[in-house]
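--- STAGE predict ---
source: upstream dedup step, 1 unique chain passed
mode: sequence only
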Amino acid sequence: MRAKVVITEFMDTRAVAQLAQVHEVLYDPQLVDDVPRMRAEAATAHAFIVRNRTQVRGDLLAALTQCKVIGRLGVGMDNIDVAGCEAAGMHVIPAAGANALSVAEYLVATSMLLLRGAYQSSLEVAAGKWPRNALSNGREIGGKTLGLVGFGSIGQLTAKLAQGVGMGVIAFDPMMAAEHPVFAQTGVRCVSLDALTASADVISLHVPLLPSTRDLFNAARIAAMKPGAVLINTARGGVIDEAALAAALKSGHLGGAALDVFGTEPVPADNPFEGCPNLILTPHVAGVTAEANERVSFMIAERVLAALA
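--- STAGE serialize ---
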């Protein structure tokens, strides 16, 4: 049977073509921004493919009356009511592992940049200034401790890359016992969240947004971090109290931070980040590279084709 596949956000066009060889495909990367039309198209879809902005819940979920499979072009599932989909007979497929390398590289590169602190002087140097003394106290990444909050596939790959540049790695994961074999296999030490917070030079977050993780890094926990430490979030907005983070950067308690995810996306104009030193803000792209998009797109295309067969 020739099924209808609706794709609401961007996908590698070659993977879209692979789907179109077999099924009718509606590919519109702007469909996510036209909710009434998206609901109308959902009513006739047998497969529905989304990234992180499409909220597959409520009215949209109710509209998917013919759908057999939801393809997620990524790994986070907080934009999808997975239980509701499964109760309605839909199989939800994430692109597990396909963008792990992109996120891991982002984390190690960003850690280097923030620790060294020498890469924001281009305008001054080009203008004839020479801030050499001011930028001579940067820190090397070798010998520093990376703390991973969450130790799934992305955390494990990040640990491998970080160890390759000389970092020691510790991790906390409430879903893993200290005796879990992955710690011995990776050479990563399992510690408590409090111990990790107090001792890591760089902390990277790898947890979903749940009631138990909302504001996990609040003012008190950020204050418990090592002075001069760096905090990076590529997981989900809401895990960090953004106002508390901004205050810690402005006070000098933290040495830097990088956020790729935010409580509200796009970030509202009244955000707390203006004037924050040593802060990198990116628009939810840590897991999005040319190579990752290709891997994610083809993985989902192949798995959706198999589900519709």
